[in-house]
Structures are given as C-alpha cells and as structure tokens.
Amino acid sequence: MKTTLLKSEHYTRSPWKNGGGIFTDIADAHREGSPARDWDSLLWRFASTPIVAPGPFSYMPGIDRLQMVVGGRGLVLKSPTQEFDEREPFTTVRFTGEMEIVTALEAGPVEVVNLMARRGAAEIELAALTQPGDLPLPAGTHLAYAARGDCRIRLGAEDFAISHENTLKIDLTEASKFALVSGLVVLASIRLVG
C-alpha cells in the first residue's frame, strides 16, 4: 500500500474541453510514453468544477463519466433521451462522454466532482461515505476527497486526517480494509484493465 496526500494548493486548473469553464484537476493518469498529457492520452481524471450557469457539457468520445454534486443543490442533466437527477448533493450519476447533455440549475450554482475514464482502460466508481463504518477496497487506485470539512479515515490499522478539500491517494496492490472514522468523504475508485 502506498498513500500520498494531495493538497488543494497544489491542484492544477485547466479549461473544460469545450472551453465553457475551468476545472480543478485533483488527480489523473495518462498513457505512458504519450508525447502530451492531453485528452487523447487520458486514462482517468478526478476533478472538481463549479457549474454557475446552464450550458452544454463537453463532447468526450470514448470517455465514461461519473459525477456528484458536493456543494449546492438542484442540478439536473438533460439529454435528448433521459434526465440525470442530481438535485440532492452526494448523488452519483453515470453517463458517457458521447451523450449530448445540457445542465439545468434549479437553485443556483453548484460544485461537482467528476471521475472520468477512457472506456476499456479503467473501471471507475464514485461514492459519498457519510456514516462511520468499514468498507473493503479492492486493488487499484482510490482517492479519498474531503469534500465538506475535515474527515478521518482508517486504512488497515493506520489513521489519516484529511483537511477540507485535500485528498488522500491510495494505491493498493491487494485488497485492504477502509473505514470512515468521522466527517464525510467522497471516495473515487479506479481499476486499470487490460
């Protein structure tokens, strides 16, 4: 097991693919040997972003996306065939990067986190843990993000305190036990495949 504390002051900021806003890049991975760390070489990305006005999402062919509101409420994602209800915070929705989506804001701006992965390169999960308790973690990369205030977690027999908006990156070569001790944590899990 390897753990790395990612501090919010070191996160990078980049434009949305469609240029409609700015996201905060918390952690990502790109194909080894790629000449550039860009959307074409992306394996996965965990990022946060404000959505301050209704508008279209970026077109991201070949990318699977998970999204969750972590600040504010009232977000609905609308596509020609369905709606994704994120009106309540800490609700995860899953959609593809090819889907035409426009946002509707029913109660003002929101802050969201996105977990994106190249389809076929990684399997992803995104969940909010709000109650203390144990959870088995499989081998892979896990990101424990303190989305709302400070939190404490336990990995195996070791305790970690994570300050607001910081992230503990956990790289596991084998399954381990994870526990939320206090606070609220958003847990992003990535398992590379192939």
Summarize this structure as a short list of keywords or feature phrases:
Jelly Rolls; 194 residues; 6-stranded antiparallel β-sheet; 2 domains; 0% helix; RmlC-like_jellyroll; 5-stranded antiparallel β-sheet; mainly beta; Uncharacterised_HutD/Ves
Q: What's the tally of helices?
A: 0
Give the ordered list of helices and strands. Answer: EEEEEEEEEEEEEEEEEE
Helix/strand structural class: mainly beta
Using the coordinates above, name the CATH class of the largest domain: Mainly Beta
Within CATH, the superfamily of the largest domain carries the name: Jelly Rolls
Main β-sheet, in a few words? 6 strands, antiparallel
The amount of beta strand, in percent, is: over 45%
- In total, the number of strands is 18
Examine the secondary-structure arrangement and name the CATH architecture of the largest domain.
Sandwich
Question: What's the domain count?
Answer: 2
Low-confidence stretches: none
> Which fold name is given in CATH as the topology of the largest domain?
Jelly Rolls
Our measurement of the CA-to-CA distance between the termini, rounded to an integer number of angstroms, reads: 21 Å
Shape from CA axes?
globular
Mean pLDDT: 94
Radius of gyration: 16 Å
Task: Summarize this structure briefly.
Helix content is 0%, strand content 58%.
Write up this protein.
There is one protein chain. The protein is mainly β and 194 residues long. Helices cover 0% and strands 58% of the residues. The protein has no helices and 18 strands. It has strands spanning 2-6, 12-15, 22-30, 42-51, 63-71, 75-78, 83-86, 92-96, 102-105, 110-118, 122-129, 133-137, 140-145, 151-155, 158-162, 167-172, 176-182, 185-192. The strands form four sheets. A six-stranded antiparallel beta sheet has the order 2-3-4-10-5-8, with no helix packed on it. A five-stranded antiparallel beta sheet has the order 1-16-13-18-11, with no helix packed on it. A four-stranded antiparallel beta sheet has the order 12-17-14-15, with no helix packed on it. It starts with a strand and ends with a strand. The model has no long low-confidence stretch (mean pLDDT 94).
